[in-house]
Design a protein that fits this description.
Blueprint (H helix, E strand, L loop, with lengths): L2 E4 L9 E7 L6 E2 L4 E6 L4 E5 L4 E6 L6 E3 L3 E7 L9 H8 L10 H10 L17 H7 L1 H6 L1 E2 L2 E2 L7 H16 L2 E9 L1 H10 L1 H5 L7 H14 L5 E4 L4 E4 L5 E7 L2 E7 L7 H16 L13 E5 L18 E5 L3 E7 L2 E15 L5 H16 L2 H6 L2
Parallel strand pairs: 14-16, 16-17
Antiparallel strand pairs: 1-8, 2-4, 2-7, 3-6, 4-5, 6-8, 9-10, 11-19, 12-13, 14-15, 17-19, 18-19
Helix pairs in contact: 8-9, 8-10
């Protein structure tokens, strides 16, 4: 009897996924636990194995299609139920539901026919997953190419995958936090010299020593003193949840958008440990091999937009964190040192915090604490436990 494999729960809060790649085609034999597809959730790419050995009868969706958790992904005929050649495929496939899988009104079906859109390839946004006229128009490549607003031609790009997740999380953050951004500068000349002096040793091990591990250590040390910034807000109980561990999220630019990989227990790791782990996580994020677990559990986040030439910004909190630090591009500037003007390496910093949890005074003190570590990195080692 045909076995319908339905898209399982791929992780906390995941409600749908996009088929990135099929590893099999209809008619292929498959072994139990063999990976048959790669499905992209809003956070990572997940390999989907088949739970049974047998023969693939039908791939229910094409690459690029989005389907909800619980929808049928593929159909196989288990090995002990494979029928003889000439009887199996036609009869079995012929019994599979077709039109019944699609929820759409006659008007929508007519529009789809007019635009040449296959409704089975459209993800419905209407009640109960019903396909709407907008879904059909949005799914029509021809419609996209011909789309215009009153000023000229436009292209409509469906928002999905990581980009869709980024949009949802940013909107959630701005809806649920009372965010304020403060800005300041740090004279990182001594940190710059330290990194230049020491970077060749890790390079021999294949590790690229960037400033980020130092930023993470400076933040973690400052969080020890200003612990409310290392927490979250429980809106149901109206409690501030102060985290007693230090997991720093680092925003990583990927071709699909920013992903926040999380380095755990920063307080227990050396600068080189952090550099190695960051390098590994960043590579996995860009190759979309990072796991969902490696994207969860941050207590504070750092976004280094300085690598793109940015100076100051108003970074959006990685909800449900309480704060996020943005680091800009280090530039040489005239700076007063002991009453004299010198050319120094200056790092712009932008701290966005949830004003419900901390006041401006504490946030400023926290930022000044970070600056003190960045300007005198030796303090990081003196104050480390």
């Amino acid at each position: 009897m045909p076995y319908e494999f339905k898209l399982p729960d791929l992780g906390e809060g995941i409600v749908e996924g996009e088929i990135v790649k099929w590893h099999v085609k209809e008619g292929d034999p498959v072994e139990e636990h063999q990976v048959v597809a790669e499905v992209e959730t809003d956070k990572a790419i997940v390999e989907v194995p088949t739970p049974k050995k047998g023969k693939v009868l039908k791939l229910c969706r094409a690459e690029g299609d989005v389907l909800a958790v619980g929808e049928t992904l593929f159909v196989i005929e288990p090995e002990n139920e494979v029928e003889e050649e000439g009887e199996k495929s036609v009869s079995v496939v012929g019994t599979l539901p077709t039109e019944e899988e699609v929820l759409a009104t006659p008007k929508v079906r007519s529009l789809a026919k007019k635009l040449g859109v296959d409704l089975k390839g459209i993800s419905g946004t209407g009640p109960g997953g019903a396909i709407t006229e907008d879904d059909v128009r949005g799914g029509s490549e021809a419609a996209r190419k011909e789309a215009r607003d009153r000023f000229g031609p436009v292209e409509r790009v469906p928002m999905k995958g990581v980009r869709k997740s980024i949009a949802r999380n940013l909107k959630l953050s701005q809806e649920r936090t009372a965010f304020v951004t403060g800005m300041d500068d740090a004279d990182v000349t001594r940190l710059w010299d330290l990194r230049e002096r020491e970077k060749d040793v890790p390079r021999l091990e294949g590790v690229h020593l960037t400033f980020m591990p130092f930023f993470m250590k400076a933040v973690q040390h400052a969080l020890v003193t200003h612990e409310r910034l290392n927490g979250s807000m429980d809106e149901d109980t109206e409690e501030i949840v102060v985290k007693k561990y230090y997991n720093i999220g680092v925003a990583v630019d990927t071709p699909d958008g920013l992903m926040v990989s999380v380095v755990r227990e920063v307080d227990k790791k050396t600068i080189l440990d952090l550099a190695r782990e960051l390098q590994e996580l960043s590579k996995k994020a860009r190759e979309r091999k990072i796991t969902l677990d490696e994207l969860k559990g941050s207590t504070f986040t750092i976004s280094n937009f300085g690598t793109f030439g940015g100076v100051y910004a108003t970074p959006i909190i990685n909800y449900p964190d309480v704060a996020i630090l943005g680091t800009g591009k280090v530039k040489e500037k005239p700076w007063v040192v002991d009453g004299k003007v010198e050319v120094r390496k200056i790092l712009p910093l932008s701290l966005t915090f949830d004003h419900r949890v901390v006041d401006g005074g504490e946030a400023s003190a926290f930022l000044n604490k970070i600056i003190s570590y960045l300007e005198d990195p030796g303090k990081l080692f003196i104050e480390s436990s």
